[in-house]
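Reopening this one. Same input as before:
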Amino acid sequence: MGRPGVTEASLLLDSHVWVWAVNDDAKLGRKAKAVIRERAERNAVAVSGVSFWELAVKAEKGRVEFSPDVRGWLAAASRVPGLGVIDIDRDLMLRATSLDWSHADPADRMLVATAIVYDLELVTADRAILEYARTNKAISAVDATR
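Same output, byte for byte:
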């Protein structure tokens, strides 16, 4: 399978969903798993560059562990077939600051901005993001726990 480009992607994984999907974690719901699998077969799944930062920060703080280490896990996980990485550029950073959303988490804001700019469905278990998507027509989200 080839690596998807931004133009081929239709699904964006939140950082924790990426971890759950790669590690086949039971927290990932059946519906979400099926959507991810189906889109990966079409090379249509993406993660944001901000997820690399977010997961590295969480690993550094001891909030999550990766094997063999965070760098090794990220390198391997970013090469999963059907998955592409959307790099964060200045336009995305600026878009994240202008969201009509009081949520302060910078990684969440970057993920939402990426989903909006690239018209991607965002798979997440984050209640704040799911609620934002429910009330904002500019973004579509899938509950990762279902």
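So the earlier flakiness isn't reproducible anymore. For the record, The longest helix spans residues 30-41.
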